[in-house]
Amino acid sequence: MFDTLSDRLGSVFDKLRGRGALNEADVREAMREVRIALLEADVALPVVRRFIDSVTEQAVGQSVLKSVTPGQQVVKIVNDALVEMLGGTDVPGLDLAATPPVVIMMVGLQGSGKTTTTAKLAKLLKEKHGKKAMMASLDVNRPAAQDQLKVLGEQVDVLTLPIIPGQQPVDIATRALQAAKLQAIDVLLLDTAGRLHVDQQLMDEMQAVAAISAPKEVLLVVDSLTGQDAVNVAQSFTAQVPLTGVVLTRMDGDARGGAALSMRAVTGKPIKFAGTGEKLDALEVFQPSRVAGRILGMGDVVSIVERAAAAIEEEEAERMAARMAKGQFDMNDLRSQLRQMQKMGGLGALAGMMPGMKKAKQAMENSGMDDRVLLRMDAIIGSMTPKERARPDLLNAKRKIRIAKGAGMQVQDVNKLLKMHQEMERAMKQIKKMGGLAGLGKLFGKGGLGAAMPGLGGPGAGGGLPGLGGGGLPSNLNDLLKK
Fold first, then answer.
1. Whole-angstrom Cα distance, residue 350 to residue 152?
2. Which of 54, 208, 217, 361 allows an S-S link to 351, with CB 3.0 to 4.6 Å?
3. Greatest alpha-carbon span in the chain
4. How far apart are CA 465 and CA 47, in angstroms?
5. Which of these ranges, 181-185, 190-194, 233-237, 272-276, has the smallest mean pLDDT?
6. 312 in the Ramachandran plot: left (φ > 0), alpha (ψ -120 to 50) or beta?
């Protein structure tokens, strides 16, 4: 996400930060490079002009150029301007303050990912907000569109309106409202039909459905990979339908990011959600400050914490906490950690969100290392007997040969995994010496993480936990199982 733009801006700001003093010419030269980077990222020209003018005006001020760290000051100004461009700090969530059933109407062109996004949103409303949801497909044009939503409903365990062949969209919307009232549904999601392009027939149909259902939210679903065209589509819909927000799909594949950066400024509507993958839980609330942090390489630690909270089961966390307090860490614990990393999006996703980990992520990609490394490690642990997993010290040469053959790996791969386990086990014992988790909490509490670990102090900083690599990953992970 935003990789191309992030790399370009990163090189510009690295130059600024590397210089002790800046003059106005330095800043204007940097802003010219930023302008080119934004245009290459497919950001709308009027948006780029406003952004560059605003940033330049602030950055050439005396308070910046004569400050102790002018380079860092310019980066902060750009960060704040990016947050504002993406929607500001106060992003409104879904407005569900109405008498049930609250209607959410999903609109957009055919192929934008509207039906899948409807199911993702229903899953999020059910699991995160505790709402009883129902979905209804109003798409009578695309073959099997209604059946697709029915299948997705079964996958996310959300009710879908029974299909009556031949019924028209307005009639389906009316029936959906009646069914939702009878079944005490909190939120009704209407998946409207799309077209290959914006036309008056599409708009008339949506306006008729809106008149019947009185939606509280009208969300436009657009494919971010279409870049500037996504912005044009959004403008067309804005002129015809009372939109309340935008959902950008396929954000995980959008290396440029022009659609996201232009959307709010061009339409005046907030980006409320971002689709970040094909899985039905790959839908994130769009937070401008976090996205700006990712673009500028400052990381997104809050999202990592949220992913961790969602991935780690409470009982498992309590069990791990008890073992950490005793300084215990066996192969079962390591396997549990690896599987949680997979649930949180894998190595690449985590590295992309860690402050100062941009270069580490690139190194991983250049070395051919990917999330398959987690699967390989899991395979090695799976080839061990329960006794060996509980007591890794039992692994002699003969046992290692057997484990390697069982996992389809080499003995040296088994040795690398054991070394990684030993490092993490040492870290657990260090925590025990520091008084367990309570002692560790006191250490972090005094002055915060920045004081306890200077390597983490500040935006874009590198560093990590003692005994571990940058960002808290085991230091031998880059060498582990390169194949």
1. 28
2. 361
3. 74
4. 40
5. 233-237
6. beta
Q: Are 35 and 289 spatial neighbours (Cβ–Cβ below 8 Å)?
A: no
CB 76 within 8 A of CB 29: no
Look up the CATH architecture of domain 301-472: Orthogonal Bundle (1.10)
Q: Give me the residue label for tokens 């509507």.
A: 269
Helix (H) or strand (E) holding 252: none
Q: Which two tokens stand for residue 276?
A: 């970040």
Q: Is 152 exposed, middle or buried (0-12, 13-18, 19+ CB in 10 A)?
A: buried
User: What is the average pLDDT score of the chain?
Assistant: 75
Q: For residues 260 and 266, what is the distance between their CA atoms, to the nearest angstrom?
A: 10
Residue 367 C-alpha from the chain's centroid: 24
**CB–CB of 232/45 below 8 Å?**
no
Mean per-residue pLDDT for 361-381? 66
State pLDDT tens for residues 293-343. Answer: 777 765 444 444 444 555 455 555 566 666 666 666 778 877 777 776 666
CA separation for the pair 386, 402 (Å, rounded): 14
For domain 3-86, which CATH number applies: 3.20.20.450, 1.20.120.140, 1.10.10.10, 3.90.700.10?
1.20.120.140
Distance CA 419, CA 425 (A): 10
Question: Residue 328, CB half-sphere, CA atoms under 13 Å: how many?
Answer: 13
For residue 419, is pLDDT > 90? no
Q: Domain 102-295 is of which CATH architecture?
A: 3-Layer(aba) Sandwich (3.40)
CB 198 within 8 A of CB 237: yes
pLDDT band at 477 (very low <50, low <70, confident <90, very high): very low
From the list 425, 424, 400, 422, the residue with the least C-alpha distance to 413 is 400
**Rounded to an integer, what distance in angstroms lies between the CA atom of residue 313 and that of residue 31?**
46
Within 312-410, residue ranges assigned H as helices are 314-325, 331-343, 346-353, 358-366, 372-382, 386-390, 397-407
Report residue 145's pLDDT band, with 50, 70 and 90 as the boundaries.
Answer: confident
**CATH 1.10.260.30 in the chain, residue ranges:** 301-472
C-alpha torsion 302→303→304→309, nearest 10: 90
In the chain, residues under CATH classification 1.20.120.140 are 3-86
pTM beyond 0.85: the answer is no
Name the packing angle between helices 397-407 and 372-382 (round to 10°).
Answer: 130
Q: Name the region of 21 (left: φ>0; alpha: ψ -120 to 50; beta: rest).
A: beta
Phi, psi of 36 (to 5 degrees): -65, -40
The yes-or-no verdict on residue 228 having pLDDT over 50 is yes
Q: How far apart are CA 217 and CA 188, in angstroms?
A: 11
Name which residue leads in pLDDT, 187 or 350: 187
